[in-house]
Amino acid sequence: VHQSARDVLDSPEFHRLVARRWRVSLVLTACLFVLYYGYILLIATQKPFLSQRIGDATTLGIPIGAAVIVISWVLTALYVVWANRHYDSEVARLRGRLRHD
Amino acid sequence: MQTTLGTPTTSAVIFFLIIVALTLAVTFWAARRTRSTREFYAAGRSVSAFQNGLALAGDYMSAASFLGIAGLVALRGYDGMIYATGWLVGWPALMFLIAEPLRNLGKFTFADVVAFRLRQVPVRIAAACGGILTVLFYTIAQMVGAGNLIALMFGVRYEWAVVMVGAVMLAYVLFGGMIATTWVQIIKAVLLLVGVSLLTLLVLSRFDFSPGQMYSAVAERYGQSALEPGGLVTDPIEAISLGLALMLGLLGLPHILMRFYTVPDARAARASVLYATGFIGYFYLIIPIVGFGAAALVGREAIRGIDPGGNMAAPLVAELLGGTPFLGFIAAVAFATILAVVAGLTLAGASALSHDIFTHAIRKGAATEYEQVRVARLATVVFGAAAVGLGILFRGQNVAFMVGLAFAIACSANFPPLLLSIVWRRFNTTGAVASILTGAILSVLLIVLSPTVWVDLLGYDTAIFPLRNPAIVSMTLAFIAGISGSLLTREPSAEASFDDEKLRTYLGVGAE
Fold this sequence. Notes:
The structure holds two protein chains of two kinds. By secondary structure, chain A is mostly helical. Chain A has helices at residues 5-10, 12-45, 47-51, 61-97.
């Protein structure tokens, strides 16, 4: 059954799609903020913690800094996997319902 | 150590000529494909996600991040690494908050998105001003850096270096538009990633491929403190304000946002951010190794001896480990890096002038294709000439704060209206103009009153505004201005078209 733009906009499926998209985005953004600003605050307030050695000279701060970069990429990848698997198929379904007039 | 830096060696000149010849050949090829506005501004939307990922990386990784971060790590140790992380974390935020809506709603510039359902003339003018300010400060910093670096590496005069960069870059953008710019950025990204990877391998080969041994060598020479966080981040509010500017500033950089219109759809835009984040993240993971390697192998004194800012750490370690030919290669890569970034900036500045101001504010959208492309090219010349002129004017000035200023304006004047226009039905023209003006004026004003300019450059004893980067204040107030400006006025047409906008934002219906 083809519907008008209004029907699609008002449909519970569209509402759910938009809500879910922002829920995923905001949860990931929150993770990113905790990760990066957590790291910055750690540097500002807990220097001895980051300065402890984990090798001959290597400090704990070095792998933690590298981890911030790697985890940032992983968060980005998580979003792409979610969007490719769930978001796109729902978009295709809703677009298919739109009447072309 | 003996160095050939500053003298134009045969290998440096050969690599330099190869890069210029290759990119100009690409420009010649692209020029024949650049006739319409869609081709000039957006490469005909034919760039693949992988290509755009590389081009985004090429657009973003500046000489400041290549030579600057390696130098910071070499001279200041761990503190330089903190910078490296800050330059990456904007990319995931760009993905989560605006990448796909931006692609679906816009045509050529981010102002297309802000002005989507608002009154065109005031919003276009305000958004173009925010965009141009951002791009202009960024360009000045790049041009002055380019002049200094090329003068230092090839031994040519500063003015000549700036004119040379301006002329080659102008050729790319003027004739080849976005198609040439994209390929220049792709070539540069590949060269930079290959060059820095080789350099990293060469450095690690001196330490049995064990970073731990390298860190030990650094600690032996400069003390354990080189591997510990030092004085860079001490005041939490200052650190968070700088972090906000670096992270959310990316979401308001016109030359980056513009690249999203070169891919066919939102799905490709999404994938291109993942590729870009991968390339840029890899780059920032390995560049500190080059910096630490330079400290351990070349030595801080030698690096400071050539350039007190440390910018020559990477070229010096390249020469030590790979000889003059490798130094020539790295110097040419640094040159390509500058060219690609400046080309992207010029295209973004020109498109704000021609697409936003001429086509939409002056001609109210009624200009022919032919006229639009001509004005776009004219705007390119104007912006390119301004870049060269300002580059020469600011010779010898400390312009490091200008990158910070560009990011502060981007996150305060460009990002708030962009985000609000995507998510909030009640957002209207008054709110958009109020947030852009608040963000732009406050960031400039507060940076002038900050320790960076008021004390370091103007020589007063104490700063009027305590933070070096104003983002935490200027961005917050720009959001407040945008929200209160919208709540104080009603614009029924803007609210009514939010439904159309939503269909386009989330489903891509009607996206160009």
